[in-house]
Amino acid sequence: MSFPARPIAFILAASNHGTMIVNRNDYNVKSSGDVYGVGQDILQTSSFSASEVNFVLVLLTWRRHYFGDGVFAIDGGANIGVHTIEWGRHMHGWGRVLGFEAQEILYYALAGNIAINNCLNARARLAALGEHCGELIIPQPDYFAHASFGSFELRQRENTEDIGQSISYEPSRGVTVPMVSIDSLDLQRVDLIKLDVESMEVEVLRGARKTLQNIKPILLIEIFKSDEAAIRALVDELGYRCFSAGMNLVAVHTEDPVLQHLSHRDGVTYLD
């Protein structure tokens, strides 16, 4: 029996995060020649965003210290699950993670990475986060060709990032995925929400207003493609204090005792 020749996109990598399903094509090359992408970082350095991961692990530990076991964290825009896996492993026996990923193919890798790393306190959902519940038609990248899939924007903007391959935003060429708001989850407890949703951060926060008012979770929000002023205004109104952290904002409610462990000096946010 002969087998058809076909390319391989996803492989297993023995990373610092554990064994990970990684797309070897997950990279883009900037005009400067710099190469970036989640898969690229893992395959070249064995890890992705290690300092950010460690920062969040400390935040989760402080939340447990002040609020007890049962810590719950949302990974919005989970990609293949580096944060989801690390949080789940760290919180074994005392916390849970829910990761949202809207790209179906990446969702399969996310779910696989949860299982292969035995992070059974983590769950994955194939859905986009938004301001309202409904559906969203998203384009389909070619996962057999190189691109920074973590930089892929579900909605086209005037200055949509070039991820390394041409993307068609024609609805007829897209697929429909569920879209949910955080408020619709009707959560009783949530300690931390990470949002890395490629320019949709503001609307996701609007869809979480009730949750932020009532439960006051810590927020880690990517601002690279979003309106930072709008994000700051929204969370300031709800009683949060913001700290700059690279491409992210860390927002902690003024009533949260974890706030005393954060400081900002010389342009750097510290967490003791």
TrEMBL record:
<dbReference type="InterPro" id="IPR029063">
    <property type="entry name" value="SAM-dependent_MTases_sf"/>
</dbReference>
<dbReference type="Pfam" id="PF05050">
    <property type="entry name" value="Methyltransf_21"/>
</dbReference>
<dbReference type="InterPro" id="IPR052514">
    <property type="entry name" value="SAM-dependent_MTase"/>
</dbReference>
<feature type="domain" description="Methyltransferase FkbM">
    <location>
        <begin position="75"/>
        <end position="242"/>
    </location>
</feature>
<protein>
    <submittedName>
        <fullName>Methyltransferase, FkbM family</fullName>
    </submittedName>
</protein>
<dbReference type="InterPro" id="IPR006342">
    <property type="entry name" value="FkbM_mtfrase"/>
</dbReference>
<keyword id="KW-0808">Transferase</keyword>
<keyword id="KW-0489">Methyltransferase</keyword>
<dbReference type="GO" id="GO:0032259">
    <property type="term" value="P:methylation"/>
</dbReference>
<dbReference type="GO" id="GO:0008168">
    <property type="term" value="F:methyltransferase activity"/>
</dbReference>
